[in-house]
Specification:
Blueprint lengths: L6 E9 L5 H11 L3 E13 L2 E7 L2 H14 L4 E4 L5 H11 L6 E3 L17 H8 L5 E2 L3 H8 L9 H9 L5 E4 L9 E5 L4 E5 L11 H14 L4 H17 L15 H5 L1
Parallel strand pairs: 1-2, 1-4, 4-5, 5-6, 6-7
Antiparallel strand pairs: 2-3, 7-8, 8-9
Function: Catalyzes the phosphorylation of hydroxymethylpyrimidine phosphate (HMP-P) to HMP-PP, and of HMP to HMP-P.
Catalytic activity: 4-amino-5-hydroxymethyl-2-methylpyrimidine + ATP = 4-amino-2-methyl-5-(phosphooxymethyl)pyrimidine + ADP + H(+); 4-amino-2-methyl-5-(phosphooxymethyl)pyrimidine + ATP = 4-amino-2-methyl-5-(diphosphooxymethyl)pyrimidine + ADP
Pfam families: Phos_pyr_kin
C-alpha cells in the first residue's frame, strides 16, 4: 500500500479564474509533491482583468471545514491567504493557534489588480491575532505599509520593515521586495539573522498568483521537513520558474505557470 505524501492545508479564498487563491495553492502543493487540502473562507468572481465580486463564508462554515480536516487527516503545514473579515481572521487564528504545525501567513490585502480583499477594520485582527501564531509571514511592500506604517522605498528599508512586522510576534518575516526599483531581493528575518533571496529580472507581465504561490510553496517545503531558510530558498526557486513561464490568459494579466517543471522536462 502506498504511503500518503505530506499533507498541506490552505485556508483562503477561491479565485474563479484559477490563477491565485486556493486554486493556485493546490496546484503548487501538487507540483511540489504534497497532498493539498482546503478550507474556503471566501468566494470571488475573478478573471484576468480583476475582481468583480467577493463574498465571505459564515464563520461556522469555516470552523466546520477546519475541524473536518484537522481532526481526521491532519496537516503537516498550514497556509493562510484571503481571510476577508475580522470575524474570519479571529476564527482561523483561534483554531490554528492550538494546532501543532508550521503556519505560513500570506497577509492578503489586495489582489494583483488592486481590488481590496481584506476589510480595513480587519487589519488589527491580522496584527494581533494571526501574526503572533505564524511561523512565517510573507508581506509584500504594500502589506508591510498596511500592517506597520513603514514605507519601503529602497533595499535599505527592508530590514527596518522586517523588524516592524516581527514586533507583532511571528517567528520569521519574509519581506518581498520584488517591486523595489533596484535588485529584486526578498529579506528573511527571525529577530537576529537575515537571509537574502534574489529573483531573476524578467519581462513577463503574467504574474497573477505570485504571492499565493510563494506562501504555499514555503508551507509545502516545511511539510517535507525543511528548516525555514531552506524552505524559502526552495520556494523562491520554484516561483521564479513559474513567473518566467507565466502565460497569457484572457484580456488582462495571466497567471504564473504552476506546472512549469512538468513542461520543462
Amino acid at each position: 500500500m502506498s504511503v500518503a505524501p505530506p499533507r498541506v492545508l490552505t485556508v483562503a479564498g477561491s479565485d474563479s479564474g484559477g490563477g491565485a487563491g486556493i486554486q493556485a495553492d493546490l496546484k503548487t502543493m501538487l507540483a511540489l509533491g504534497a497532498h493539498g487540502m482546503s478550507v474556503v473562507c471566501a468566494v470571488t468572481a475573478q478573471n484576468s482583468l480583476g475582481v468583480q465580486g467577493a463574498w465571505e463564508l459564515p464563520p461556522e462554515a469555516v470552523e466546520a471545514q477546519l475541524e473536518s480536516v484537522l481532526s481526521d487527516m491532519g496537516a503537516q503545514a498550514v497556509k493562510t491567504g484571503m481571510l476577508a473579515s475580522t470575524t474570519l481572521v479571529e476564527t482561523v487564528a483561534a483554531r490554528l493557534s492550538e494546532y501543532p504545525a508550521p503556519l505560513v501567513v500570506d497577509p492578503v490585502g489586495v489582489s494583483k489588480h488592486g481590488d481590496a480583499l481584506l476589510a480595513r477594520d480587519a487589519v488589527d485582527a491580522v496584527r494581533y491575532k494571526l501574526l503572533p501564531v505564524a511561523t512565517v509571514v510573507t508581506p509584500n511592500l504594500w502589506e508591510v505599509e498596511l500592517l506597520t506604517g513603514v514605507k519601503v522605498e529602497s533595499e535599505r528599508d527592508l530590514r527596518r520593515a522586517a523588524e516592524a512586522v516581527k514586533e507583532f510576534g511571528p517567528q520569521w518575516v519574509l519581506v518581498k521586495g520584488g517591486h523595489l526599483p533596484g535588485r529584486p531581493v526578498d529579506l528573511l528575518y527571525d529577530g537576529a539573522e537575515t537571509y537574502e533571496y534574489l529573483a531573476s529580472r524578467h519581462d513577463n507581465r503574467h504574474t497573477h498568483g505570485t504571492g499565493c504561490t510563494l506562501a504555499s510553496a514555503i508551507a509545502t517545503r516545511l511539510a517535507f521537513g525543511d528548516e525555514v531558510p531552506e524552505a524559502v530558498g526552495a520556494a523562491k526557486e520554484y516561483v521564479t520558474g513559474a513567473i518566467e513561464a507565466g502565460f497569457p490568459l484572457g484580456a488582462g494579466i495571466g497567471p504564473v505557470d504552476h506546472g512549469w517543471r512538468l513542461r520543462a522536462r
